[in-house]
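Need residues for this backbone.
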């Protein structure tokens, strides 16, 4: 999960916008380096979702570990080149916290929350 988010945000995006969805959850909206694709990474129910919008249409992929749910998904702008992503993965009574600062090599971070 973290590797896919890091690849999409850190390496393949020219503009990364952090904003809130209609339920108040953070989401990342990334314009792709090829210029014809926008990737949105957000939480829906208890799963992390990657939504893709391009000239060919739209689609979505779940980013998850089997039987695990995502809790407390949070995205913060560190500066114009770095984003902090954090969340808990929960399975039954076990929880593990993940936090990562992603450097945006090809893009700029905009906080639109």
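Answer:
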């Amino acid at each position: 999960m973290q590797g896919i988010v890091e690849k999409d945000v850190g390496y393949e995006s020219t503009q990364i916008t952090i904003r809130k969805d209609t339920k108040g959850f953070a989401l990342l909206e990334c314009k792709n380096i090829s210029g014809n694709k926008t990737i949105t990474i957000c939480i829906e129910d208890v799963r992390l979702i990657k939504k893709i919008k391009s000239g060919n249409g739209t689609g979505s992929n779940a980013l998850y570990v089997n039987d695990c749910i995502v809790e407390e998904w949070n995205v913060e702008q560190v500066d114009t080149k770095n984003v902090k992503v954090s969340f808990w993965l929960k399975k039954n009574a076990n929880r593990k916290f993940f936090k990562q600062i992603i450097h945006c090599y090809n893009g700029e971070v905009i906080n639109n929350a």
